[in-house]
Amino acid sequence: MAKGGKNGATIVIKRIEEGEHGHHGGAWKVAYADFVTAMMAFFLLMWLLNATTEEQRRGLADYFAPTNVMGQNQTGAGQPFGGRTPNESAQVTQNAGAIRLQRGPLPVLEDVEVEEDVPTVARPVPKREGPEGDDDEADPRRVRQARADLPPGDADPREQARQAQLAAEAQEAEARALSDAALRAEHERRERAEFERAAEEIRAAVAMDPALAELAKQMLVEQVPEGLRIQLVDAEGQPMFALGGSAPNDRARLLLARVAQVINRLPQQIAVAGHTDATPFRGGGERSNWDLSAERANTTRRLLAEAGLVEGRIRSVTGNAERDLLVPETPNAAANRRVSITLLRDPPPTTPPNPPARTTAP
């Protein structure tokens, strides 16, 4: 109470102290919820038992107590049924719902034809003894004779198969030989025609050039077994090379250039050879016609290369001296002094060999 107040009012101060409430307990609620849940499950179980058939109940029982066919003891041991179904007195593995193992009837096999290898029975060959009592059964000639004496129906099947295979191989080889011969003939025909065209082109190129028209008679172009041979020969008073030397004159150089223009368009390989007459070499020293002919052949090779011929096409460069005379009856004739350029024939094609026939082991 305040003293000296104007109105004399009384002021009251009230303090409330809050404390913790006492625990009222809720365990009964949990117990009640469990009881209600159990009752619902029980009534649901009763309804299911009443609403399902015998087969359905047996299936449910087998689901919760699986059948162990290989086991010796009962399965599903536990409450409430202890491994028994609700409607059977026997155990789950012994009632009608369990899986049974029993021997069934044998399967019926359909009739299937099976090819069996029939063993070949060879007709015995009569044994013959020689003068000293030796057995001649192992003699191949006697075995072949004995097989030849067999009737056609009793021939050895292995021998028949071998003879048939040999006949087939002979026919195949004959056909392959005919095919190879046809290929070679066609190849030779085309090569001859190609060489003939090249020879005509060389003759025409020389004849059309006024500077070389006079040398046409000193150039020989012909087909030989080795291929197409082009020879540049000397004439009396008109040599291609300096006498006793390997340097060609201007006309020989120009002629070789015309020849190179034609043979550059052909694929064949080339052989170059030098020749001399039978006159002994007069250069003195150790030089001979062999050296002179080889030097002239090598000079010809070099001039062809300068005219555009690929070096890889040169197969050989040889000097033959006087061993291969163009005019054998006149060994010292000027025509024997020459160089030859030969376009070598290509090897004929052949058919690829067939793979060997696969034979069946006896």
Automatic annotation (TrEMBL):
PROSITE patterns: OMPA_2. Residues 228-347 form the OmpA-like domain. Keywords: Cell membrane, Coiled coil, Membrane, Transmembrane, Transmembrane helix. The chain crosses the membrane at residues 30-49. It is a single-pass membrane protein. The keyword Heme does not apply. It is found in: Cell membrane. Residues 74-93, 108-142, 342-362 are annotated as: Disordered. Residues 346-356 have a biased composition (Pro residues). The keyword Magnesium does not apply. InterPro entries: Bact_OuterMem_StrucFunc, MotB-like_N_dom, OmpA-like, OmpA-like_sf. Residues 161-205 form a coiled coil. It comes from the Bacteria. Belongs to the MotB family. PANTHER family: LIPOPROTEIN YIAD-RELATED (PTHR30329:SF21), STATOR ELEMENT OF FLAGELLAR MOTOR COMPLEX (PTHR30329). This is OmpA family protein. It comes from Falsiroseomonas frigidaquae. The lineage of its organism: Bacteria, Pseudomonadati, Pseudomonadota, Alphaproteobacteria, Acetobacterales.
